[in-house]
Amino acid sequence: MMSYTRGLSSLLAGVWTRTASAVTGPVGVPSRHSTGPHAATVVVVACRSVFIGRAALQKHRLSRAQPDTDSSSAGSRVTSDDEAHQRLQQQQYEKQQQQEEKSQQEEEQQQQTQNQQQQQEHQELAMKQQQKQYYWSKESTEGRADTDTSATSLAIYEHHFAEAAAAAAAGHSGRTKAAFTSVIESFCRDDPRRRGHVDFVYAALRCMRDYGVHRDIAVYNRLLDIIPKGVFVPRNVIQRTFNHYPRQQQCGIAVLEQMENYGLMPDKETRSLLIQIYGQLSHPYRKYRRILYWFPRMKHMNPYPVPVTLPSDPVTLASLALTRMADDLDAKVTVYQSSYNDVTEDGRDVTKPYIVGIQTPDQQELLSRHRPERPVYVEGPSRLWLRDTNVSYYVLRGDPLAPHEKNPPVDPERSLYYPLQLDLDLTLDLADDFSFDVQEVEEGPVFAMCMVGRGDQATLGHWLSGLQLSNPVLGRTPIIFRLESTPSDLVPGGGSHGGRGNDSEGGPGEERTK
């Protein structure tokens, strides 16, 4: 402000000096133009300068008053910002409260949903436990006097128990094809959606043998018909590339594998069902195609086929088993004794066991070259399975042969141009490695085989007596029995093979007779 006042004072002084000089002229020199237009101009300029100075002074005053106004506006602005911040905080708090209430409500809803899901799971578990009643259980019938077998009961729901009780009261057996198919129909009728069909099919496959329907192609087709159709068919390339519905496809393969194990050839109905259920590009359909390819080629490869239904006559069954073991079409089967009932002198009823033997021409020739001073052995019983039937057999064998007796030397002068023996092993290659050790067990030659109804020494003695008619060398050869006490599987009711003999020579269980 002081600089401004000095400037204004200097300006006014300059104006005054110019005005005075214009009126009076230089100092001490009077002007000739003391009056006139030029003096008026000087006065106007001075007045203008005065006005300009007053305007500058007023502007300076206004500039001094402006900071106070700015400070007051800044204070009011700060106050408004605090209020806005408080309002924002209040809104955020209210929004947070609303979110917490909303999350609490959602948690309550989730808890209710979880409780409902748990209840549904418990209900489904109870349903599955009821569905597990589809598994056929075997009930023991040891207390019944009219049967020696175990009965299998079918249970699905409570009303099916009532139906089974009604069927039992009517005198019908529970282990029949009709009972099996009735359970399948009940499963399809009770649940149209076929829920649990995979477990039901697996349970049915396990129980088919108990009901005697494991060789019925119609029952297998009925099991495949349980599986929903059109649901498991792949619709695009990705589904066909990957295993579409693997558990359901494996269930269909299990049905076909059981058919294959029992030698059943799928028919046209099986093919139609597989196409409707899985499609032509599925694993079950490929399994079906492979069965159709290999079954006809393998059907007649066995020169000694076993019939599907084994004969009930033990003599016929023994002849079939001995023919398969002999593996020689020239083998001779001899029935030395058939099973029959006899009355002794003291009036007791005695059942004579059957005796069936077999001997090939090679075995007969080998026995004729046997040295009489070396004993032969009757060993058994040994086990043989014909499908699901277990039979026992006995063999007449000798001691292991010496190397020169096993492979007699060939006369080199029998042929001068074509040798009779070549030491060439065409099955070996340069990369084959046979460094592992193989322990070979030396066994003596087998001279004859037999199957008997009762495996005691007396019954086997009758077999040797009949075998001696065609092999006179047995009359001069010592015979040692090596028998084990095992029940016979051919005699109904389970007769017993004879016990061990007296230990007169060799180890325990051996007896020497001539």
Largest sheet: 7 strands, mixed
* Helix content percent band: 40-55%
Tally of helical runs: 14
Shape: elongated
- The overall pLDDT average reads 75
Strand order of the largest sheet: 3-6-9-8-7-10-11
- N- to C-terminal distance: 159 Å
Order of helices and strands: HHEEHHHHHHHHHEEEEHEEHEHEE
Low-pLDDT residue spans: 26-36, 134-162, 487-514
Q: In terms of structural class, how would the helical and strand content be classed? A: alpha+beta
Number of domains: 3
Residue fraction in strands: 5-15%
User: What is the C-alpha radius of gyration, as a whole number of Å?
Assistant: 58 Å
The overall strand count is 11
List the SSEs and their pairings.
Layout: H1 2-24, H2 37-131, E1 137-139, E2 151-153, H3 158-169, H4 177-190, H5 197-211, H6 217-226, H7 237-241, H8 246-261, H9 268-277, H10 283-298, H11 314-326, E3 332-337, E4 340-343, E5 349-352, E6 355-359, H12 361-368, E7 376-386, E8 389-398, H13 403-406, E9 446-452, H14 457-468, E10 479-483, E11 510-513
Parallel strand pairs: 7-10
Antiparallel strand pairs: 1-2, 3-6, 4-5, 6-9, 7-8, 8-9, 10-11
